From TrEMBL:
Protein name: Heme chaperone HemW
Species this protein is from: Hafnia psychrotolerans
Subcellular location(s) of the protein: Cytoplasm
Domain of life: Bacteria
Cofactors that this protein relies on: [4Fe-4S] cluster
Family label: Belongs to the anaerobic coproporphyrinogen-III oxidase family. HemW subfamily.
Keywords: 4Fe-4S, Chaperone, Cytoplasm, Heme, Iron, Iron-sulfur, Metal-binding, S-adenosyl-L-methionine
Biological function: Probably acts as a heme chaperone, transferring heme to an unknown acceptor. Binds one molecule of heme per monomer, possibly covalently. Binds 1 [4Fe-4S] cluster. The cluster is coordinated with 3 cysteines and an exchangeable S-adenosyl-L-methionine.
Lineage: Bacteria, Pseudomonadati, Pseudomonadota, Gammaproteobacteria, Enterobacterales
């Protein structure tokens, strides 16, 4: 195989000031100070140990996620990104995103992160209602969220994103739309608009709040989507909206089934090797074990028969048409191995096929599970 998929780098920072009741991310309430320098040293050692899996490829995007990456000091962020640049070929125009919690953002630190190389900031706003933020267990109020968004806007970064959630406990349609209006007024190039889900093993799972019913959720989605569209945002994935040209390149690479190296506690990786094998890696989840230099938790080779399902499961999250040639580049398989399944999907009106593309239909979106099942190897 000579064409390998584009490569991204994910870096996980596992601490938060406190744990939000709805959150099942690998995040731990901070006891004491973040071990800034130690953790960065471990991240770079973890990266060193994985470098041989990247086949010397250039990294196109970096995403520093959490947890709360904005708890990391500016000096630690500088060392981290300097260390990455010294170890990997990084594309000259690489998108480098960092997640920030509005309650942990200081003006000086934002511009220092930018000097370290961060060119896209993703701010976890969630809602602009003080009462809703309190119920969500957030450590910030609406004013801090607005301040963080203004800071990001003033830095003239390549882009910035606001994370909002809807379908919040006891939320009305008007409250959900008001959150969107306030977000749109801040003019972010990108908006992530997630429906709150109750995840197992969270505080909300053991004591569930009252959420809007399915009809109310549908109205929120429909009218919210109209509001966003009218404001110039295009939906390109279930929860992702962007002004034209501002889609998140890092997430696009995941959804196109691109490759990514994952470093830090609990980080996942997917790495195509020069011989066509695809490896999945999972790093040690808990900071304690990870910081005893036990970085790799699991590594296994993806079986060839699983690849078509995995490819389409990611790919069909995107609303854009899928170039047919990408199937071979991203899975290493020839399109002929899925010809029968494709024909069945087309016959069932789940999929349209042109010479160059596949496009999922509205019917295919409604019956996504049935469509994906066609590509499951029994
Ligand atoms: C890793 S968190 C992001 C950053 C930062 N830790 C924060 O919370 O501000 C990514 C985003 O996922 C969304 N999210 C987290 N848990 C969720 C849930 N249970 N349902 C829906 N969205 C969720 C939130 O919008 C959150 O900002
Ligand atoms: S701040 Fe973000 S990562 Fe941390 S617990 Fe809350 S939602 Fe999860």
């Amino acid at each position: 195989m000579n064409t390998l998929p584009p490569l991204s780098l994910y870096i996980h920072i596992p601490w938060c000031v406190q744990k939000c009741p709805y959150c099942d991310f690998n995040s731990h309430a901070l006891k004491g100070e973040v071990p800034h320098d130690d953790y960065v040293a471990h991240l770079l050692a973890d990266l060193d140990a994985d470098l041989h899996l990247t086949a010397g490829r250039e990294v196109r995007t970096i995403f520093i996620g959490g947890g709360t990456p904005s708890l990391l000091s500016a000096a630690a962020m500088q060392n981290l990104l300097d260390g990455v640049r010294a170890r990997l070929p990084l594309a000259a125009d690489a998108e480098i995103t960092m997640e920030a919690n509005p309650g942990t953002v200081e003006a000086d630190r934002f511009s220092a992160y930018q000097r370290a190389g961060v060119n896209r900031i993703s701010i976890g706003v969630q809602s602009f209602s003080a009462q809703k933020l309190e119920r969500l267990g957030r450590i910030h109020g609406p004013q801090e969220a607005k301040r963080a968004a203004h800071l990001a806007a003033d830095l003239n970064l390549r882009s910035f994103n606001l994370d909002l959630m809807h379908g919040l406990p006891d939320q009305t349609l008007e409250e959900a739309l008001d959150d969107l209006r306030q977000a749109i007024a801040l003019n972010p190039p990108h908006l992530s608009w997630y429906q709150l889900t109750i995840e197992p093993n969270t505080m909300y799972a053991s004591r569930p709040p009252t959420l809007p019913d399915d009809d109310a959720l549908w109205d929120i989605f429909e009218q919210g989507d109209q509001l966003l569209t009218a404001a110039g945002y295009l939906q390109y994935e279930t929860s992702a909206y962007a002004k034209p040209g501002y889609q998140c390149q890092h997430n696009l690479n995941y959804w196109r089934f691109g490759d990514y190296l994952g470093i830090g506690c609990g980080a996942h990786g997917k790495l195509t090797q020069s011989d066509g094998q695809i490896l999945r890696t999972v790093k040690t989840k808990h900071p304690r074990g990870y910081m005893q230099s036990r970085y790799m938790d699991k590594m296994h080779q993806v079986e060839t028969k699983e690849l078509p399902f995995e490819f389409f499961m990611n790919r069909f999250r995107l609303l854009e048409a899928a170039p047919r040639e990408e199937f071979a580049i991203y899975t290493g398989l020839d399109e002929s191995v899925i010809r029968l399944q494709l024909d069945e999907a087309i016959a069932k009106n789940y999929l349209l096929e042109t010479n160059a593309h596949w496009q999922i239909t509205q019917h295919g979106k409604l019956f996504l599970n049935s469509l994906l099942e066609l590509f499951l190897d029994e």
